[in-house]
Amino acid sequence: MVSSRILVAPSILSADFSRMGEEIKKIEQSGGDWVHVDVMDGCFVPNITFGPKMVEDIRKYTSLPFDVHLMTVNPDQLIERFADAGADYITFHLEAVTHAHRTVMQIQGTGKKVGVSIVPSTPAFMLQELLSELDLVLVMTVNPGFGGQKLIPSCLEKVCYLNQLRQERGYRYLIAVDGGINQFTAPQAIQAGANVLVLGSAFFLSPDPKAEIAAVKGTKFV
Length: 222
Ligand code: DX5
Ligand code: ZN
Fold this sequence. Notes:
Blueprint: E1 7-10, H1 20-29, E2 35-40, H2 52-58, E3 66-71, H3 79-85, E4 89-93, H4 100-109, E5 113-118, E6 136-140, H5 155-169, E7 174-178, H6 186-192, E8 196-199, H7 201-204, H8 209-217
Parallel strand pairs: 1-8, 2-3, 3-4, 4-5, 5-6, 6-7, 7-8
Helix pairs in contact: 2-3, 5-6
This protein binds D-xylitol-5-phosphate and zinc ion.
């Protein structure tokens, strides 16, 4: 049974890279649950961010779980290094690999939680053969590469589908949404069945990040 608690995972993609230690502290002090680490290689996505050394260096600033989102080709080559650096969840893109099952097994072999992500053009049923093995399904709600984009509403239908399948079959995975999530879009995502909300610009560009998290978590339904 998956907990109904909503987890907020601020993405350090939108943080000030020159003050990363303080930015990590800000996540903790504002009520963030996880640290979302967007790894971009300039190939799978048209942007470049950071590698395992960033995870290793910021690991000492918090005990919050590190949710590493690999937006890279050849994720298999990076898994051990991110595991050693201190990742808790390692998520790769279905579109980036040929043998996704093998990559899932490789992550499990490191003892870390395993996630798979899909971009907006990938249908959720493509994940079906993997779902029983997964701890996290990360549904991209924008085309990956940059923070500050607008959520693509049709992506939330995939969240509904994954939530329904999870209930019917008793799978354990959490569903994360990533891209364009803020206090105004979070209610739809939560209603669709999301458990983990990745917040980039809505957290780091907010004058009051603590209030943003409180607003997002305070979503109520009638
Ligand atoms: C997008 C990244 C996201 C991004 C979200 O490629 O995977 O994690 O940081 O940023 P916002 O919340 O600003 O859309
Ligand atoms: Zn991400």
